Each structure stands twice: as structure tokens, then as C-alpha cells.
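Explain the record.
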Amino acid sequence: MSIVQYRGFAGVRLEAEVGGTDDDPAVLLIHGAGQTRAVWAGVADALVQAGRRVISLDMRGHGGSEWPADGRYDVEALVEDLRAVLAQLGSRPMVVAATLGGWIAGAALARDAALLASGLVLIDLPLRVDAAAAAHVDERLHEAGLLAPGQAQWDARLRDAFDPGEMAARFADVAANIMLPTLYVRGAMSELVSPDDAAAFVGSLPDGELVEVEDLALVVTDDCNDALGAHLIDFLERRAPRGMPEYRAGSDARTFRDALGCFATGVTVVTAVCPDGTPVGLTANSFTSVSLDPPLLLVCVANSAGTGAVLCEAERFAVNVLQIGQQPASNRFAGRGEDRFATTPWEIGEFGTPVLHGSLSSFECAREAVHPGGDHFILVGRVLKAIFEPRRDPLLYFRGKYRKLHFA
């Protein structure tokens, strides 16, 4: 097992424990309120042994993840944390979530689920919250917080910020929108969820299954990991088998994207200047040479890109191929809401385009042609000038992650 860090909503640091190999299908485990990733220890081991790559996440304010100074534990922050983590993974995981984590996972996957996950497992998830259920949740949080000073594994402020009624109300309308294979796991003796409620909920899912663990009230406990692990592995083998994923016309776009991600690429920043003189740029890895005579290259830019209109109309643009030390610049030009050039060394090149200092190579181009390309447009440039630094190593991108070049 290794420890990895993710960037959550508003930059909150989230920590996870990862086991298994990178090539195994991924499973993301999300604990409940007042718990940490340690609750999954037995389940995680079983899944790794079954050939899965397991990511056990600590939610904000729990375990090794950051306890935000502003005490923000509202539903939106927790949901956006999870969506941020899913976006940072190299492939779509099966999401397995318990109690509070189940509410968060359901809300996070109620839109564009197929782009973020391959399936969903909900464990011990309360489907309605009456006074008795709310008292039960509060009691569990209180018991979990009874630790000596300095030993707490979760932020006690969560207890005040956590509103089970709000969570359940938000979750009530999302079932029909979860377009994923979904397994609902209920302890057969559960006081939080009745058999009728569980059956009705599963019936409202587009692709749902129900399983009950006999003789148990709650199934995410130390004494029932074997039973839970068996149900999870059965569901995974049936609904997310370890065989090669397959895309066919009409399948979900993320599978196609994952297949394309098997082609390792370099990383570029495409730059131009607005009519008012403001520099613009974005990160792109759909870049290739086209012709040596005449010297042509192309880059594909999403139609939805904020700077797309400027790049499409610009008479001149530059393609800056990044080297391994420019990963921060790649992230900066891929993000939103900041001045991308403020902390990036650059200059106006000989032909009036922004050239990033220290790049592996930079190509200043005149616009040769623009072609439609589905949800992207294809920008073809005639190279006017190229500079390069042969002693640097390239920044590589493969299966959704930055990579380093390893020489044989």
C-alpha cells in the first residue's frame, strides 16, 4: 500500500491509500461519517487479492486528509471533492461508498456518471431520515468522537455541519439519474433502512441490484468484511470484469477516451494574442506534425475551450512543447480562474506569438487552415520558426497521468 494525495474542492488536500497495480481495474472506497479509510482495511485487502487496484480515500476532515480551517463540510463541498478526485484518476473506478459516503457518491454521480465511474455500490445508505434515524446517526458520530485529545480521527465540527435530513432530501431525486450498474447492500437487520424502502429504491435505479447480508445490522464493520468482500467481488466480476474494456460506436465516450489514453503523448501549451493584446493559452496533447514540405503541424482544440474562439481566429499562434520541469505550467494552462501567464515566464516571439521560456521546443505558426472535428476544431499551422532544447526530457502523458521518460 502507498499513500497518494489528491486536490479536492477549493484546493483541500485529500489523502488516500492505494493498493494493487496500475493496470488492474480501479475501485474507489469512500467511508462514512466519523470513520476513516481504515474501516475498509479487510475489504481492500480482499479486493487487491482479487486483482483490483484499490483507492481508499479519507474524506475532508477525516483521517489523513486536510481538516479545512473554515470548517466547510456542506454537501456541495463534499460532492465536489469526490468529483475532483474522480477527474484525477487515470481510469473510471467502481465507486464503493458507505452511509455518508453513499449520499455523497450518489449526488456526485447523478450527472455525467458514465464519464467518471464504471459502477456504484451503496452500503448501509439511509434512504429517508426521520427523527429516530437522525438520532441514530448523531449517536454514532458522538461515540466516534469520544477519544482523548489529540487522538481524534475526524473533525468534530463535522457533527454540527452534518445535516442527515438535507443529505437524504438531496439524494431522494437522484436515483433515476444514476446511469451506472448499481448495487445496494443492506444489513438484513438494519434499523436505518426497511426492506420495502430498499426494494423501492433499487427499483427506481436504471440498472440496480439489491443484496442483503444476513444476521447483520450494518455491514461496514470489522466482523463482516468477509461477507461484504464476497458480495463486492461477485458484483465486480459480473459488472466490471477484468477483461479488456471495449468501445463500439454508440458506447459511452469515456471508454473511447480511455482507449485513446493508451497512446502516450507529449504535452503542449498553445498560445496566441487577443486583438486587445492579451495573451491566451491552453494545454493540449492532441498535437502532431503534418508535413515537412511545406512545414505544417496541427493541434486539436475543444470547441468549448474558453480561449478556443481566439485560437480559431488568430492569424498567428505558437505551440510550446513542454519539458518535464513544466508540469506546473501544464496544470496552470489546463485550469480556470487564474492568470495563466502571471507566474509563467514568457515573451513575445519574433512573429508576435507568446513563447514560453524553457520549453522543450516552440513553434511559431501562421494559420494555414481550420477544419471542424466533432467536438473539437483542427487548427493547422504553417511553421515560421522553431526553436528547441535537445538536452531536456519531455513531459509525457499516458493513461490520464504525467509520466517520465525512461531510457533502456
Summary: The longest helix spans residues 225-239. The chain has a mean pLDDT of 87.
